[in-house]
C-alpha cells in the first residue's frame, strides 16, 4: 500500500501536467482542486523540488511547474523518491541482498520467489506509467472516483483458491 503522501504527490504532479508546459500553478489552486491539505502539499512539493521534478517561482504569478515533460515522469520514480524501494518484502530491498531472519535458504523460499514476481510486475507497471498517460482523462473527484460515470478503470481482483 502506498502512503497518502505519495498519492497526493501523484495527484499534484498530474495537476501540474494538466496546466501545460511552462505554466505555473499556485499551491492553493492545486490544494483546492485535488482536495489536498495545503500545508501537507507544501511539504510534498518541496520534496519533489529537491528531487528535480518541479521548480517553484515566487511572486504574484508564481507557483510550481514541472521541470520535466510529463512523458518523462513515471509513477515508479515518484514512489521511490517519496517511499524508497517499492517491494512487498524487506528481503527484496537493495537488490535482495539481505535474507529474512526466519529464512533458512533464500534460494528455496517460495514466499520470496512469489513476491519477487509481484515486485517485478508492479515495478514494470509503475515504471511504464507516466503522467502523460493520464493527461486526457478527466480529473478525479475528492472521493477518488472519476467525474464521468461510464469511465473504465483497470482492477485487480484476488481470488482465494
Produce the secondary structure layout:
Blueprint: H1 4-19, H2 27-34, H3 38-50, E1 54-57, E2 63-66, H4 75-83, H5 110-127
Antiparallel strand pairs: 1-2
Helix pairs in contact: 1-2, 1-3, 1-4
**Structural class designation:** mainly alpha
Major sheet summary line: 2 strands, antiparallel
**What is the succession of H and E elements?**
HHHEEHH
Strand order of the largest sheet: 1-2
Give the overall shape, derived from the CA principal axes: elongated
Helix count equals 5
**Residue share in β-strands:** under 5%
User: Poorly predicted ranges (pLDDT <50, ≥5 residues)?
Assistant: 141-153
Helix content: 25-40%
Total strands: the figure is: 2
Distance between the termini: 23 Å
In round numbers, the mean pLDDT is: 85
Radius of gyration: 18 Å
Task: Please give a structural write-up.
- This protein is mainly α and 161 residues long.
- Helix content is 40%, strand content 5%.
- The protein has five helices and two strands, in the order αααββαα.
- The chain has helices spanning 4-19, 27-34, 38-50, 75-83, 110-127, and strands at 54-57, 63-66.
- Strands 1-2 form a two-stranded antiparallel sheet.
- A hairpin with a 5-residue loop joins strand 1 and strand 2.
- Helix 1 crosses helix 2 (27-34), helix 1 packs across helix 3 (38-50) and helix 1 packs across helix 4 (75-83).
- The protein is elongated, with a radius of gyration of 18 Å.
- Mean pLDDT is 85; it is low at 141-153.
Brief summary:
The protein is mainly α. Helix content is 40%, strand content 5%.
Offer a few descriptive terms.
161 residues; mainly alpha; two-stranded antiparallel sheet
Amino acid at each position: 500500500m502506498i502512503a497518502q503522501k505519495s498519492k497526493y504527490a501523484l495527484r499534484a504532479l498530474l495537476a501540474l501536467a494538466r496546466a501545460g508546459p511552462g505554466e505555473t500553478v499556485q499551491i492553493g489552486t492545486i490544494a483546492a482542486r485535488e482536495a489536498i491539505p495545503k500545508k501537507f502539499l507544501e511539504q510534498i512539493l518541496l520534496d519533489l523540488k529537491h528531487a528535480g521534478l518541479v521548480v517553484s517561482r515566487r511572486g504574484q504569478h508564481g507557483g510550481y511547474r514541472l521541470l520535466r515533460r510529463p512523458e518523462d515522469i513515471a509513477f515508479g520514480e515518484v514512489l521511490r523518491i517519496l517511499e524508497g524501494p517499492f517491494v512487498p518484502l524487506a528481503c527484496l530491498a537493495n537488490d535482495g541482498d539481505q535474507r529474512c531472519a526466519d529464512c533458512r535458504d533464500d534460494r528455496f523460499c517460495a514466499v520470496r520467489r512469489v513476491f519477487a514476481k509481484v515486485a517485478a510486475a508492479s515495478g514494470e507497471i509503475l515504471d511504464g506509467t507516466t503522467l502523460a498517460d493520464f493527461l486526457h482523462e478527466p480529473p478525479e473527484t475528492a472521493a477518488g472516483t472519476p467525474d464521468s460515470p461510464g469511465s473504465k478503470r483497470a482492477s485487480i481482483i484476488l481470488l482465494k483458491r
